[in-house]
Write a structure and sequence with these properties.
Oligomer: single chain
Number of helices: 37
Shape: elongated
Organism: Rhynchophorus ferrugineus
CATH topology of the largest domain: Rossmann fold
GO molecular function: ATP binding; G protein-coupled receptor activity; transmembrane receptor protein tyrosine kinase activity
Membrane topology: Multi-pass membrane protein; Single-pass membrane protein
Number of strands: 45
Catalytic activity: L-tyrosyl-[protein] + ATP = O-phospho-L-tyrosyl-[protein] + ADP + H(+)
Strand order of the largest sheet: 8-13-7-12-10-11-9
Keywords: ATP-binding, Cell membrane, G-protein coupled receptor, Glycoprotein, Membrane, Nucleotide-binding, Receptor, Signal, Transducer, Transmembrane, Transmembrane helix
Length: about 1250
């Protein structure tokens, strides 16, 4: 703290650099801030500037409250109160604090209220008030003795200002400025004392009425123009006969020279404008004062009149100083000179200013007036809070006892006067309950309460590892430290993720070194673990597993049971461990689970008496095994008595970091650990906790770090949550090194301290220390470099039947099971086993190879037989051979034909019965191939059978068998009683006019709708299998005895595979009346083209079998379709059905519905209504050729005549003429059209050379009509 305040030599104060970075206050400690001058201005009389500069340039600093970077910076504000306040409030764009933070001397006139501004704080007066005035030295008062009473030396002697209107008086002050020493000041020597040329002549102001030479005027000496320019208005407004000479910083020395020059003359006097007290006017008793009445009764302006009245000398600070630098703010408020102290300072300065330097005068005053500055440092005691989170309930840690230990630490720290002077450490206690939600709730309460947050140094706790992660993770965003006293989980060592987390207990990952040494001691090489899934505390086991296996210790199992479970039994987990012969089991589980586990272990005979060794946590409650109590009081259902539990757990081991240092070791209170334990026991009584020592030392870690920070950087304590302050505190904590209650506290570059690890064994209802592990440590590395394990064999007890160390479950090597083979080859058992495996493997390879050769041989014979058979059929191209139909082969003798059903493209179709290979007799339709058919017909016949064998759907004709091994070829299909749909409809047209017929239901709307839906289902099935039918019409759909319609006639059906369409590339007979435009002109067939045909089928159904495009030839139909025309739906249909038919005939295939959507549409809409019949379809008897059984028509034209043409053709816009949708007439024959071979990558292209179409009478068109 700077404790030099010279009323004669005003100065500006700057605090190193109070530079906010976020919420950070940079205190100006070395290396932590920029050295840029931030000033706190104050006005002053200019005649004292030079001397003030010397004083402030040599002042000493005496550091008391910790602000070591205080700077006194020279700056003038020319007594402009607005400017002084503005410099304490203005913040530059790239800064977060004003350039001036504190001004120790701001002149406040009587009418000005600093509280009118929102950004400054008035910190009280610094000394008695001061003012400006006109002063006449006593040595030069001879000419004016008649105008004041010179005998009243104790009173302030004054002369009234009105005398300066009287030429008789002012003549005494008319000093010749052209004589030395005034002459040199007639021209300005600096900007500070310069006067504008429109006001002054050089440095001299002369009123207009004094320039004529007729009026005699006196001379007033002043310092700098900018500080005293108000006097010009004063002289003008009051018509004073005075000139003003601005001499700058030399006013004090000039007054001395003039006094020496004129002291013996009675006709010359001198008047000066100055500040009192100053080095010009140190005491008013040495001068005669020019008195001015209260400005309210004079014709003075605000800027003039109040300059001569008493001003308060006030300390002003930036408003945020109170919050971010509380100790400094308190010191500034206390900083004040009382009247007697002020007089002593002036007297000392008067006596020594010509003998000693300003530095020596300042030091003399400080040395001899220590009572003055001691009281400045006395400020109200500030609180620093630690947010304590303790497991008061809901855990086995003993939170009450931990809290008592922490309170003991806070009391000891507050009673230690050398620690944190002027601060009181206070612990805020909350209950975390070892639950993450409670811990975060408590933390949020700490940070949202401004009464605590601003002075909250950090958090003490929480206790449980699972609750630390959320708190430690979020605390870095609030720059709050957290020191835990019992969270051993290893996942918090990541300093980037948890930069502000520490703990005074060691990490449980250090246990791996103890386990490793312990297992080596007892020769255990197999170990298992049982933990709760997702628990942070047990993560060290997974990390330990790799290290153990590198040292020859295998993890036979690491079982994890789910955290969220209702009544998950532990039996299956323990049985699994027993099956794997696990004998050494680490079970890091909480109290409740520990009771369940050990009860099941008792029932499964997996206790210490049976040779099992259990490792359980040390932090379990002392009576955690008391199942009688927990079943009765806590409604648990552990199926073991307390007596049985004691048998189950006897002999279990635990590990823990040593709770306390040796009892004779001296701790931080300069008493022994044993004495402290007595004090702790007296306070905590029955609530003593093993973790009390860790909590006690954690509070001391905070206190020692804060004390060091206060001594090196006191400003940092004013803003504990700045990133800068928290980082400094973290660095100090990392360097912590002291001997506490729990042993040596040193973090060695990590978040955790290191300590001795104790190995405990439980028996006789108590834990016993059976060994200690002392780690080997590097001084500045948070790693253990091995260590020494010291066991106490006399204390260790084994409860096995023989009292010896249990085994780890390793089985003894079995005897040789192939001893004869070993003797035969004269080798060891292991080598014999290898030989046996080689022989078995070789034999297996030979057998498998023989089987493969046999299968291939049979397959080759079968293929050869098939080739020979196909050769007999005249088929020589193997690529045209369809897939194997042997699985459907039916012996010819099993088929009986009893009637003829009709004639197809390949031959006659007969009805009959067949006895199928699986023993079932059924009605079948037998499709035959003419005996002397060409090879192309035979291939198509077999291809159709191969296609049909893949179909299995209620609405698709099913192939039930084939006869291919002997000629002629036959295919057996399911028999449909009522024939094709067209014949069915034509034969029942009369029922539409006889509604009362018993068979009227056969053509009812419901029946027609069912037929349409059956066909749509069959087509949907084909589309799913990527097949295009290409010849869908009512004549190719059959009706079985259940009135179910099935799609048949697959001679033109082709599979698209992974392609989007099928392209037809040859001349052939096509059903043009049912074909879509893209199929007709581009040879492209898709599921959408089948839907065009389906729309024609609907047309056939509603017209009861009428021929589409009736009255037109096939070529005329082609031309109509080329023109973009479609069939017109019959009149009388419901709008929904008409829309469905029209949607099927959309020119763009993508706009047509799918078969599955049609099924859904028909299922959800009204039934199909047949249209009104006007004519019967048919042909004249004279046009039938009974001599040709395959072509009943004498002329194709006969069937095309409009016998039932009762509908008009609807015209649509024509298709665009392009190579992709055009056909051209052959120049050789106008009746021939060619399918254009326009290949696209998305279509499957095939040359259907074996296709044979139906006759033109059924609407097909051939290349040669």
């Amino acid at each position: 703290m700077l404790i030099l305040f010279d009323k004669l030599h005003r100065y500006d104060l700057r605090l190193g650099r109070l530079h906010l970075r976020g919420a950070d206050v940079a205190d100006g400690s070395p290396g932590e801030r920029e050295e840029m001058p931030h000033h706190i201005p104050g006005g002053e009389p200019e005649e004292v500037y030079s001397l003030r500069r010397k004083v402030t340039g040599h002042c000493d600093r005496y550091e008391i409250i910790g602000y070591s970077k205080v700077k006194i910076v020279e700056q003038r504000d020319h007594f402009d109160i607005e400017r002084s306040i503005q410099k304490v409030t203005d913040i530059a764009e790239d800064e977060r604090v004003p350039k001036s933070t504190i001004n120790l001397e701001v002149w406040i006139p009587p009418d000005y209220d600093t509280y009118a501004t929102d950004f400054v704080i008035e910190c009280g007066s610094v000394s008695p008030p001061g003012r400006f005035g006109w002063f006449i030295p006593n040595e030069l008062t001879g000419p004016i003795r008649d105008y004041y009473n010179p005998n009243k030396l104790n009173d302030i002697r004054s002369i009234h200002w009105r005398f300066f209107r009287d030429e008789k008086v002012v003549k005494f002050f008319d000093i010749d400025v052209n004589q030395m020493p005034l002459k040199k000041y007639l021209t300005a020597i600096s900007e500070e004392n310069s006067c504008p040329q429109n006001i002054c002549d050089g440095t001299m102001f002369t009123p207009t009425y004094c320039k004529s030479g007729k009026q005699r005027c006196g001379l007033l000496l002043s310092s700098n123009y900018n500080s005293t320019k108000f006097v010009i208005k004063h002289i003008k407004e009051n018509k004073l006969l005075m000139r003003v000479l601005f001499v700058g910083d030399d006013l004090a020395s000039l007054v001395i020279k003039l006094k020496e020059k004129y002291w013996d003359r009675n006709d010359v006097s001198l008047v000066v404008l100055s500040w009192v007290p100053s080095d010009v006017v140190l005491y008013e008793r040495d001068f005669v004062t020019v008195s001015f009445e209260n400005s309210e009764r004079l014709n003075f302006t605000h800027a003039i009149g109040y300059k001569y009245e008493m001003h308060r000398l006030v300390k002003v600070a930036w408003s945020k100083i109170e919050n971010i630098a509380k100790p400094l703010y308190d010191a500034v408020r206390s900083f004040k000179f009382e009247t007697d102290e002020y007089e002593r300072l002036l007297s000392l300065y008067e006596a020594k200013r010509y003998v000693n330097t300003p530095k020596e005068i300042a030091c003399d005053f400080l040395y001899n007036n220590n009572k003055t500055w001691i009281k400045w440092q006395k400020s109200p005691e500030s609180y620093i809070y630690i947010g304590g989170i303790f497991p008061m309930s809901g855990s086995s840690y003993g939170g009450q006892g931990i809290l008592q230990a922490a309170l003991l630490a806070a009391t000891a720290i507050n009673n230690n006067k050398t620690l944190l002077p002027n601060y009181h450490l206070k612990l805020l206690a909350t209950d975390g309950m070892c639950r993450a939600e409670n811990v975060m709730k408590n933390f949020i309460e700490f940070i949202v309460d401004p009464n605590y947050y601003n002075s909250l140094v950090g958090v003490l706790g929480p206790a449980c590892s699972d609750t630390v992660e959320p708190l430690a993770g979020v605390s870095k965003y609030y720059h709050i430290m957290a020191i835990s006293y019992s969270a051993e989980g290893s996942s918090f060592s990541d300093r980037e993720k948890y930069p502000y987390f520490f703990r005074t207990i060691g990490e449980n990952k250090y246990y791996k070194h103890v386990y490793m040494e312990l297992f080596k001691q007892f020769k255990w090489n197999r170990v298992a673990a049982l933990t709760e899934d997702g628990q942070k505390y047990t993560e060290y086991i997974s990390l330990m597993q790799d290290d153990l296996e590198l040292n020859g210790i295998s993890f036979v199992a690491n079982k994890k049971f789910p955290r969220e479970r209702e009544t998950e039994p532990m039996t299956r987990y323990l049985e699994d461990l027993r099956e794997k012969r696990a004998r050494i089991i680490i079970a890091d589980v909480v109290d409740e689970i520990a009771r369940q586990v050990m009860c099941e272990a008792y029932k499964l005979n997996m206790t210490g008496a049976e040779g099992y060794v259990w490792f359980l946590p040390m932090w379990l409650n002392k009576t955690w095994y008391n199942t009688d109590y927990f079943n009765l009081e806590k409604n648990e259902t552990v199926n073991c008595t307390t007596h049985e539990m004691i048998k189950a757990i006897t002999g279990y081991f635990s590990m823990t970091h040593a709770y306390y240092a040796p009892y004779n070791q001296t701790m931080q209170e300069n008493i022994s650990v044993g004495d402290w334990l007595k004090k702790y026991k007296k306070v905590a009584k029955a609530n003593m906790s093993n973790y009390g020592g860790f909590a006690y030392d954690a509070v001391w870690v905070y206190a020692l770090a804060l004390d060091k920070l206060a001594r090196t950087d006191a400003e940092a304590l004013s803003d504990l949550h700045s990133e800068n302050t928290t980082n400094k505190l973290v660095k100090i904590v990392e360097q912590t090194d002291f001997y506490g209650v729990s042993g040596r506290i040193k973090f060695r570059g990590g978040p955790s301290r290191f300590s001795v690890i104790n190995i405990m064994e439980w028996y006789e209802n108590d834990t016993h220390l059976i060994g200690e592990f002392t780690p080997n440590l590097a001084d500045n590395s948070p790693e253990i470099l091995g260590g020494d394990l010291a066991l106490h064999p006399s204390v260790i007890k084994w409860f096995t039947h023989d009292g010896k160390v249990p085994g780890d479950g390793t089985q003894s090597p079995p005897g040789c099971t192939i001893e004869r083979i070993a003797k035969l080859f004269d080798v060891e058992c292991q080598s014999a086993m290898i030989l046996l495996n080689v022989m078995i493997g070789t034999l297996a390879i030979v057998i498998i190879s023989a089987i493969c050769f046999y299968i291939k041989f049979k397959y080759d014979r079968k293929v050869q037989k098939q080739r020979e058979y196909l050769k007999k059929l005249g088929i020589t191209n193997e690529r045209q051979i369809p897939a194997n139909l042997d699985d459907l082969e039916v012996p010819r003798e099993n088929v009986e034909i009893n009637r003829r059903l009709g004639v197809g493209a390949f031959g006659c179709v007969y009805g009959g019965e067949a006895e199928l290979p699986w023993g079932r007799q059924r009605q079948v339709a037998v499709k035959t191939l003419k005996l002397h058919s060409p090879p192309e017909d035979r291939i198509d016949f077999l291809k159709e059978a191969d296609t049909m064998k893949r179909f299995d759907h209620p609405n698709v004709i099913k192939l039930v068998g084939v006869i291919t091994r002997t000629q002629p070829l036959h295919t057996l299909m399911e028999f449909c009683l009522y024939g094709d749909v067209k014949t069915y409809l034509l034969s029942r047209r009369n029922l539409t006019t006889n509604k009362n017929s018993k068979r009227a239901d056969e053509v009812s709307p419901r029946r027609l709708t069912s037929m349409a839906m059956d066909i749509a289902r069959g087509m949907s099935y084909l589309a799913e299998l990527k097949f295009v039918h290409r010849d869908l019409a009512c004549r190719n759909c059959l009706v079985n005895d259940s009135m179910v319609v099935k799609v048949g006639d697959f001679g033109m059906t082709r599979q698209m595979g992974n392609y989007e369409c099928y392209r037809f590339t040859r001349k052939g007979m096509l059903p043009v009346r049912w074909m879509a435009p893209e199929s007709l002109f581009s040879g492209i067939f898709t599921a959408a083209s089948d839907m065009w045909s389906y729309g024609v089928v609907l047309y056939e159904i509603v017209t009861f079998g009428c021929m589409p495009w009736a009255g037109k030839t096939n070529l005329e139909v082609v031309e109509e379709v080329r023109g973009g025309k479609t069939l017109e739906a019959p009149e009388g249909l419901k709008q929904q059905l008409q829309s469905l038919m029209n949607s099927c005939w959309q020119q763009n295939p993508k706009d047509r519905p799918t078969a599955s959507s049609v099924v859904e549409f028909l299922a959800n809409n009204d039934e199909v209504q047949p249209t009104q019949l006007t004519k019967r379809p048919g042909i004249k008897l004279s046009e039938i050729d009974f001599t040709n059984e395959f072509n009943f028509l004498n002329s194709p034209k006969a069937m095309m005549e409009p016998h039932d043409a009762i509908f008009e053709i609807k015209g649509n816009p024509p298709l665009p003429q392009s190579p992709d949708n055009a056909f051209d007439l052959s120049p050789e024959d106008d009746s021939t059209f060619q399918m254009q071979s326009n290949r696209t990558d998305s279509c499957h292209e095939e040359d259907d050379e074996g296709f044979i179409g139906n006759s033109p009478s059924n609407g097909y068109i051939n290349s040669k009509l």
